[in-house]
Amino acid sequence: MSRADAEGSQPPIDLRSDTVTRPSAGMRRAMADAEVGDDVYAEDPSLNRLERRVAELLGHESGLFCPTGSMSNMLGIGVLVPRGKEVLCDAQAHIARAELGGHAAWFGVTMRTWFTPDGVAPVDFLQTLATADAGPYLVSTAAIALENTHNFSGGRVQPIAALQAISEFARGAGIAMHLDGARLWNAHAATGVPLATYGRLFDTVSVCFSKGLGAPVGSMLVGPAGVIDRARVLRKRLGGGMRQAGILAAACDYALDHELPRLAQDHEAAAAFAEAVGTQAPEAIDPAGVQSNIVRLDTGALPAVELVERARGRGVRISAMGTAVARAVTHRDVSTADARRAGTIIGELLVADRH
Ligand SMILES: *Cc1c(COP(=O)(O)O)cnc(C)c1O
């Protein structure tokens, strides 16, 4: 039997995304036992409790449970940005690249982007870009949106000092702040900065339970009570009012208790993966860029889609994010040992292509 066959007979090591995680037995039990009611009538006790818990955790007044992070981003920006005004964000932001134009399609929001490799703009550059009241000839800036950790740059943690400087500028200029915190949990695990310290820098924050926290479904938008009340109306208008959603809330609640404390392990696994790739193919990895559970690979002359196909043949699944950029994401269902093994295989494939 060839080595490829031997590897192929084991279940693949799936590093495409942390969204592939499946609910654990404990989480499924918590879901089965959840106390529920009709959430459109605000009568689901599990969901009401979760909305209060997450708002408080992030230093905010109110929370709104959403089926996806795309929806909670759209609702946050939809309430902060009036029709025809703009949100500023970086060119690789999930809201700009991966939400299919929903902000414009549903809420008339326009977007203007900046580009930096790690998604953080220096505050003095933002000061030249943003104008709260641009008068009758130019688009006025209503909000700035940041992403932490930053997905498409490879899970970069945004430095708290940079976030503070941007928030201070925006507030002084009458511009709202939205955080796409799909993986804010990972930023918190990597830095120890309290979630509320991050949260209070923003008017609205979106977080996901369906990534590294391992819940099957669920995101949350938090913000001031008045803002969240308006977002609740928009959610219903989009058809996002849910009924016995406490079943899902129970999974998210369980995730905060049992999965949030273990996220640092995913970061260790990502570091092990990156090290295994880097010892063979150092030019594919920026070791300083590996800050959380996402590893960005520069595939060089080998097209990323080709690397993805070859890796699949060797029992490792990763994603192509650009012509020469691939991404691997560690999560609860991949051990550090498996991540290292996957890194060795990816390193071999990258090196083999050069000979
Ligand atoms: C996954 C993700 C989201 C939300 O995605 P959904 O699939 O809609 O839940 C938002 N922002 C970032 C950065 C993400 O990685």
From TrEMBL:
This protein's GO CC annotations: cytosol
Keywords assigned by UniProt, alphabetized: Lyase, Pyridoxal phosphate
Modification N6-(pyridoxal phosphate)lysine, positions: K211
UniProt-listed GO biological process terms: glycine biosynthetic process; L-threonine catabolic process
Ranges where the record places region Disordered: 1-26
Cofactor(s) demanded: pyridoxal 5'-phosphate
Domain Aromatic amino acid beta-eliminating lyase/threonine aldolase, first and last residues per copy: 14-298
Entries under Gene3D superfamilies matching the protein: Aspartate Aminotransferase, domain 1 (3.90.1150.10), Type I PLP-dependent aspartate aminotransferase-like (Major domain) (3.40.640.10)
Keyword Membrane: no
Keyword Lyase in annotation: yes
GO molecular function, a single term: L-allo-threonine aldolase activity
PANTHER family from the UniProt entry: L-THREONINE ALDOLASE (PTHR48097:SF9), L-THREONINE ALDOLASE-RELATED (PTHR48097)
NCBIfam families registered for this protein in UniProt: GntG_guanitoxin
Family: Belongs to the threonine aldolase family.
Name the record gives this protein: L-threonine aldolase
Lineage: Bacteria, Bacillati, Actinomycetota, Actinomycetes, Propionibacteriales
